[in-house]
From TrEMBL:
This is Anti-sigma factor RsrA. Residues 11-44 form the Putative zinc-finger domain. Residues 89-111 are annotated as: Disordered. It comes from the Bacteria. InterPro entries: Anit_sigma_mycothiol_RsrA (IPR024020), Znf_put (IPR027383). Residues 90-111 have a biased composition (Low complexity).
Length: 111
């Protein structure tokens, strides 16, 4: 997406890293670049506002849910593998894992 106007920071770069900006997971200098871009570019500012609203809604609706310990450990393990360069984020790590067997259902009893 591009608004068609020239900017110091391209719209595609801003949108590619929007969640990093929202989560404050980028250096301050990068954040400043994005803030300047949002002042100049209303389509990107609109997208930012929408994503920010969705993030707040999810936090409000799901923020009190506890993450199961095994799920957290699995996710953190995958993050560690990606950081170490052993796994590419685009890979589907579940593809090599066997699927869980379905749980057999007991037949319904008639009364």
């Amino acid at each position: 997406m591009s608004c068609g106007d020239p900017h110091e920071t391209d719209c595609s770069e801003v949108l590619d890293h929007l969640y990093e900006f929202l989560d404050r997971e980028m250096p301050d200098g990068e954040c400043t670049k994005f803030e300047v871009h949002f002042e100049e570019c209303s389509p990107c500012l609109e997208k930012y506002g929408l994503e920010q609203a969705v993030k707040k809604l999810v936090k409000r609706c799901c923020g009190s849910d506890e993450v199961p310990t095994d799920l957290r450990a699995k996710v953190m393990g995958r993050i560690d593998l990606i950081r170490a360069g052993h796994l590419v984020p685009e890979q589907d790590p579940a593809a090599g894992e066997p699927a869980a067997a379905p749980v057999p259902q007991e037949p319904a009893t008639q009364e």
